[in-house]
Amino acid sequence: MRQVKLLTVPDFNVIGGKGLYAFDCRTEDREYRYHNLLGGDTEITLWRSDQGGDCTEKYLCAALDIALQAAQYFCAQGTPDPTLSWEKY
Description:
Elements: E1 11-17, E2 20-26, E3 31-34, E4 43-47, E5 53-56, H1 64-77, E6 86-88
Antiparallel strand pairs: 1-2, 2-3, 3-6, 4-5
C-alpha cells in the first residue's frame, strides 16, 4: 500500500459576504482567527443555504477592505497581519 505524506502548509480561509466576514489562518505551527475586539458573544448567521453557517460576533469583520488586507498579507508573508487582532486556537 502506498503511503501519502501529509504536508503542513500555510492556509487562509474566508467565509461570509454581504458585509460580514470571518477569516482564519494556519501557519506551520499555529492556527489563528480574526478577533474583533469590539464584537460581542452573539451568534450571527452568515448564510442559510445547505448546512448554514453561524459565527460569534467577536470573530466577524464588517469591512471587506480589512478582510482583503488580511488575505493579501497572509499570501505575501505566510503569517497573520500583525496590524490586526488575532486569537490563537
